[in-house]
Amino acid sequence: MKKSAILLLLILIILIGSFLRLYRLTEIPAGLMQDEAGGGYDAYALIQTGKDHHGVKLPVTFQAFNDWVSHSYTYQLIPFVTTFGLSVFSIRLSVVALSLVTVILMYYLGKILTGNNLLSILMAFFFSVSQFAVTISRWSIPPNTVPFYTALSLFVFYSGIQSIHKRNLLLGLSGLLFGLTLYTYPSIEGILPVWIIGSLILVIKAKKKTFRKLGLLIIVFVLTALPLFINHLTNPQTVTSRLSMISIVSLTNNPLLNYLKNYLSYYLPFFLFLPGEINPTRTVPGYGYENPVLGLFYYIGLFYLFFRYKALVNQFPQLDKTKINSLRLFVLLFPLIPSLTLPSGDFQRATHYLPIMIFIISIGIFLSYDFLIRITFKTRQTGARFIIISFVTLYLYFQYSYFRSYFGPLYQGITQWYFQNGLEEVVKFTSLNEKSYQTIVIDNTINMPYIYVLFYKKVDPNTLDYQDFAQIDPQTKWLSVKKFQSYSFQKVSEEDIQGGKLLKNIYNSPFSNYVIYEKDKNLIVKFEITN
C-alpha cells in the first residue's frame, strides 16, 4: 500500500471520527455531569491561583466529592480552558482531541506490532467509529482519557523493544509514559506495574543479550510514579474513599465469588456486544458497548491470540512470540482492579483495554477474511463475497442504528436527566438576580449543585473560602457543601415554597424541571419530578 494511499485513508478516517465526536458536542450529552464541572473548575482555579477549589496547591491527586479519582486529567484541561475559557465546549474538546490523536496512534500501534499496513488501517478505522470510544470521548472525565495514554505508552514500549539505534531513548520514554499513565485513573494503577514487570521478563527471557539495559525503563517509571504512591501512602483515603463506596467487599456478602463473576463478565458478549449495560452515560440503552457484528471477530481474534499464535506469526512475522505473550498478559490482567467494583462489566473502569480490544477485533477480521478467500478459492470467491457483503451490511446497519439513536431525541432526553441539563440556565438566572435577595437556596436533591454555581458563574477562585468545601456528610461520606457566599444548598420541601411566588420554570428533562420561587426575600430553586 502506497504512503499516499495510507495518508488519504487516515485523513478520511480522522474526518469521520471528528464528525462523530464534534457534532453537537455541547448538546449531546445535554447538560454537564458534576465530575465534568468539578474538573473544569479546578483547572480554572489552578490557572488563576495554583490551587484547586479545596485550596490544595498543585495537588498530585484531586479531591472531587470526597473521592480522589482525577490526577493528570485536570492538568490537561488547563490549555483548553486557557484558550477557550471555562465552558462545556472547552473541557469536552480536551477529551475529543486526545481521542482523535488516539485514532492515529492506533495505526502506528498496529504497524509496530505487525508491520501490516492494512491491519493498521483497520485498527485506526474501528477506533475512529467505535461506539464506546465515540461515546466516552464526548464528555469529560478521567477514565475517558485513558485509551490515549495506553495506546501511546504501548506504541513507544514496543518501538523500544524493536529498535536498535534508539532503544535506550524509547525505553526510557516508555517508562515516563507508563508512569504518567498511572495518574490517569485508579483502575490502571494495580495493573500496569504487574504488566510491565511481566513483559520485561518475557523480553529478557527471549533476548537476554540484546536487552540488558531494560533497567532504564524501570528507573524512569518508578521515579515518575513515586509522587503518586507517596501521596497514596501519606493520604490513604485517596485510594480507600471511593473504593469503599463501590467495592464488592463493602456491597456484597460473598466478595470472592462476586469477584470471580465480575472478572468473567469483562469477557462475556452480554456486557461487551449485547445490551447488558444499564447506565446510559456509557452507551445508548438497548445497545452493547460495541457493534455486535464485531463480537464474532473479537472472539476469533482471542482464539488466535491464545491458541493459534503460530498462525499469527506466519501471517505477521513482526508479531513475534514475545509480543504475543505480553498481549496475552494484558488481556488477562485488564479486569483485575475493575472487578473489585460494582456493577459488573462496567467498561468505563476498564477503558485501558480499548486499544487492545480493537487490535484483537482487527486481527479477527483480517484472519477471517483471509480464511474466507482461501476456502472459497475454487468457487471463484463467490461464497466469500456473499459472506463478506453480509457482514459489512450488518455492521453498517448496527452502526447506523446506534448513532441514529445516540444523536436522536430519545437518548438526548435520557441524558438530560443524567447530565443535569438546565442548570446553566438556573445559575444564569440566579446570578442576574442574586443582589435582590438575601439568600439563594438551591435544592440539594440536585447532585452537587454547588459545583455548577462555581462552574457556570465562573466564580473568582481568589474569593473562595476553602472551609466552605470541607464539609463531609457523616452518613454518606460524600462532600456536603451547605453554603458559600449568598448561596445555600439544602433539601427544598413543598412547605419551603408554600406561599412563594413562581418566577421561572426551567426544563431539565422529560421527567423533571427546576422551578424557581421567590419567598421572604429568598430565591428558592426546587427540583421537581414531573413524570
From TrEMBL:
One of its GO terms (molecular function) is mannosyltransferase activity. It comes from the Bacteria. The keyword Membrane applies. The keyword Transmembrane helix applies. The chain crosses the membrane at residues 89-109, 121-140, 191-207, 214-234, 289-307, 327-345, 351-372, 384-403. It is found in: Endomembrane system. Keywords: Glycosyltransferase, Membrane, Transferase, Transmembrane, Transmembrane helix. One of its GO terms (biological process) is protein O-linked glycosylation. It is a multi-pass membrane protein. InterPro entries: ArnT-like_N. Residues 16-231 form the ArnT-like N-terminal domain. This is ArnT-like N-terminal domain-containing protein. It comes from Candidatus Gottesmanbacteria bacterium RIFCSPLOWO2_01_FULL_39_12b.
